[in-house]
Amino acid sequence: MSSLGSPHSQAAVTGVDAEAVASARTIRSVYVYEAPVRLWHWVNALAITVLAVTGYLIGQPLPSVSGEASHHYVMGYIRFAHFAAGYVFAVGLVARLYWAFVGNHHARELFTLPVFSRAYWGEVITMLKWYLFLIPKPGQYVGHNPLARMAMFFCFLWMSVFMVLTGFALYSEGLGMGSWADTLFGWVIPLMGQSQDVHTYHRLGMWALIVFVILHVYAAIREDIMGRQSIVSTMISGHRTFKE
User: Fold this and answer.
1) What is d(CA 80, CA 177) in angstroms, rounded to the nearest whole number?
2) pTM listed for this prediction
3) Are 56 and 205 in contact (CB under 8 A)?
């Protein structure tokens, strides 16, 4: 019989495992994001993806195809998907604002920024040094770190509001004067000049959000690996874990 199957060898392995477990570093876990926040995050991510793809195709339409136009409703479906995702995006933003009032204090971080706190700006500089590889370890934060919080506030929240305003202003042109969209958002086009100007700004906003998403995903994965704290899985389970 092989020595690997003997009771003595099994006990030795068990002892080694017990010693390794005893000497392992503790993983701490804190509940951060409630279920409505996590649901909004992933639905919002899907809506932005659909909006970006269909919005690009609306600005750069597919080549024309031969045959009767009624047999090829491709652009119609693309526009419908864009409008539907726009509704989901806008309603989700309003629902997220509502949860900021009824959820825990982490749910309010997206809508508030302690700009008058000297300590906050010091932590922003520290995190900026961390992302520039100038310091060996970042600070540990249960919610968003100070730099990420600032990026979410300025680059995501206000850009999202801008995209909703300009998007529904353009949508109101199709619904016509007197429609609910024209009543609520018709003032946007005269404010910015003309319809084509709003189209241009709306498209630039799309690229700004795409750049933000790329940086957001990069920072989340980087923090998970190098910062020794969960980021990606936190938005699934709701728990932030610290591995050191």
Assistant:
1) 20
2) 0.84
3) no
